[in-house]
Design brief:
There is one protein chain. It is built from eleven helices and three strands. The protein is mainly α. Strands 1-2-3 form a three-stranded antiparallel beta sheet. Strand 1 and strand 2 form a beta hairpin. Helix 5 crosses helix 8.
Length: about 270
């Protein structure tokens, strides 16, 4: 039986995104390591990932686990401060769930708030030299992204950009913990997909969203740090504020795909 500190729903909100992160990223890693089914859609060769990435895979795993531990702690604090602690959950037993359209609207609000926070904080990290050098540059140590590096970065960057954007989305939308669990799982899967290094046309996330692995790959390229800040859902802020860079997917010599970005009518090398 759950103790008074955390309800079952709170446990799902805090731990489900962490579990889904490793499961979904693990599927990508398994497919890429054990099969050739995704090889023709790879944005970076295995050699690129070995030679272009400064952070080792061990460092990435340690960094992601640290970020997720901090994320869980802050999630628990926000849930309890908002009044969704175990006692509040117990008092809410028997109350009808909000109508589907209300839940869907709150989900949409959460997506918009999450995107706005991440865009402006992400751009700030690139605009202030100290913040980039001290914090955000860690994430760009992975120049050839892969799935489980999605949340790799300096803990301060992780809190300011990722964790607080989730807290803001939750508080602004008024979602229930159950709906929040679904939202954070969705956002986690989308973030992993955006860093997977694979541009498969049949992938529903990449087909439904213009902000996808190829779009975000532009940002990780050399010279891409001044464009395509939007993440993880829409590209609206990039378009509105002039930081959107179009790109073309082309077949790479030796197999796979490569992203060629165009910034101010000039192809980025």
């Amino acid at each position: 039986m759950m103790g008074p500190f955390m309800s079952a729903e709170e446990l799902v909100v805090t731990l489900a995104p962490v579990a889904v992160y490793w499961v979904y990223a693990g599927i990508y890693e398994l497919l890429l390591a054990s099969t050739t089914v995704l090889d023709k859609y790879r944005l970076h060769s295995r050699r690129d990932q070995e030679t272009k990435n400064i952070a080792s895979r061990k460092d990435v795993v340690r960094g992601v686990l640290l970020q997720q531990a901090i994320q869980v702690a802050i999630s628990v604090a926000v849930l309890n401060l908002e009044g969704h602690g175990a006692a509040a959950a117990a008092n809410a037993d028997g109350l009808a769930a909000p109508p589907f359209l209300v839940t869907a609207a709150r989900f949409g609000v959460a997506m918009l708030v999450h995107d706005a926070w991440q865009y402006f904080m992400h751009r700030l990290m690139h605009s202030v030299p100290y913040m980039y050098r001290r914090f955000h540059s860690w994430h760009h140590r992975v120049a050839a992204p892969y799935a489980y590096a999605a949340q790799y970065g300096h803990p301060v960057d992780g809190v300011l950009t990722d964790t607080l954007s989730g807290a803001a989305a939750y508080l602004a939308s008024g979602m229930s913990p159950r709906a929040a669990a679904a939202f954070f799982v969705f956002a986690t899967v989308k973030g992993v997909d955006d860093h997977c290094g694979v541009a498969a046309p049949w992938n529903p996330f990449q087909a439904a969203f213009r902000n996808n692995s190829a779009y975000h790959d532009v940002h990780h390229q050399r010279g891409g740090g001044r464009c395509n800040f939007s993440q993880p859902f829409f590209v609206v802020w990039d378009r509105l504020l002039g930081t959107h860079a179009p790109y073309a997917l082309r077949h790479r010599d030796g197999g796979g795909l490569e992203v060629k970005a165009f910034i101010k009518d000039r192809q980025m090398q």
